[in-house]
């Protein structure tokens, strides 16, 4: 690339060498974290602000831990107690953040495109921690790292993403990343929860779990996002689980060594059975959380040093 990416706003548009380089760097941070060592001088003197307009304990804590392990000064801005709830616009917030002269800004927002707007108005490097139903790039990166560590590759794998694809920014980021890296991606769910754009994105669409999971190497269950739904998109939780909830009976149609993933938080007994989620052999849900810290350390490292100029 001739110019660096100053921000990480989405996976769409990134090239396989860029993605692979981020995963390779994140791999080194996995090893570093497991060794108990840190690189607290890497971001010493840099300020990281977590600006979350939506609740997400897992993602915010992961970014906070990543920043602190690299030596950054980390500030968590509580939007519920901020001027935003008093009528301040997003552009006013951007001006305030610029005056604070932060170096890295992690943003989660309920509206698609909000991090992109902030990126145009602030001097800091902006990382999208999830915006509306658009994308969640670091979640896709940590999912890819988890898969690559377990399977040894991404190319040629059959990956089934199941459930509420319509409202899932995680699904969109994963579709872009996994397709770019040579995986065969399929989405599985009721017609009301599969967006029309899936066909345009080049993924296979299934409305039956048996067909969708057949010979899958990876099965990723998605949270049913009732807070984003209008009435009538899904039947009762009991009926949803009967047809689309991931249990061991449905999992038998995937490959015998198929791994089970979930971005969290889980609705147990709705999109996934507890026995599957907690299975020590098939489930890598806890490992996803560990990979999240390493991936976010890698992203903070890259954006603070060089962007993706040499990636």
Q: How many angstroms does the end-to-end distance come to? A: 8 Å
- Reading the helices and strands in chain order gives HEHEHEHEHEHEHEHEHHEHH
SS element count, helices = 12
Largest sheet: 5 strands, parallel
User: β content, as a range?
Assistant: 5-15%
| Poorly predicted segments | none
How would you write the strand order of the largest sheet? 7-6-5-8-9
Work out the radius of gyration: 19 Å
Q: What's the overall average pLDDT, rounded?
A: 91
Q: Helix content range of the residues, please?
A: 40-55%
Number of strands: 9
- Described by the principal axes of the CA atoms, the overall outline is globular
By secondary-structure content and strand pairing, the structural class works out as alpha/beta
What can you see in these coordinates?
- By secondary structure, this protein is α/β, with parallel strands linked by helices.
- The chain contains 12 helices and 9 strands.
- It has helices at 16-35, 57-69, 90-100, 114-121, 137-151, 169-180, 197-200, 209-213, 237-244, 248-251, 274-277, 285-305, and strands at 47-52, 73-78, 104-109, 125-131, 158-162, 184-188, 204-206, 218-221, 259-261.
- Strands 7-6-5-8-9 form a 5-stranded parallel sheet. Strands 2-1-3-4 form a 4-stranded parallel sheet, sandwiched between helices.
- α7 (197-200) links the parallel β6 and β7 (204-206).
- α1 crosses α12 (285-305).
- It is globular.
- The termini are close together.
- The model has no long low-confidence stretch (mean pLDDT 91).
List the helices and strands and how they pair.
Elements: H1 16-35, E1 47-52, H2 57-69, E2 73-78, H3 90-100, E3 104-109, H4 114-121, E4 125-131, H5 137-151, E5 158-162, H6 169-180, E6 184-188, H7 197-200, E7 204-206, H8 209-213, E8 218-221, H9 237-244, H10 248-251, E9 259-261, H11 274-277, H12 285-305
Parallel strand pairs: 1-2, 1-3, 3-4, 5-6, 5-8, 6-7, 8-9
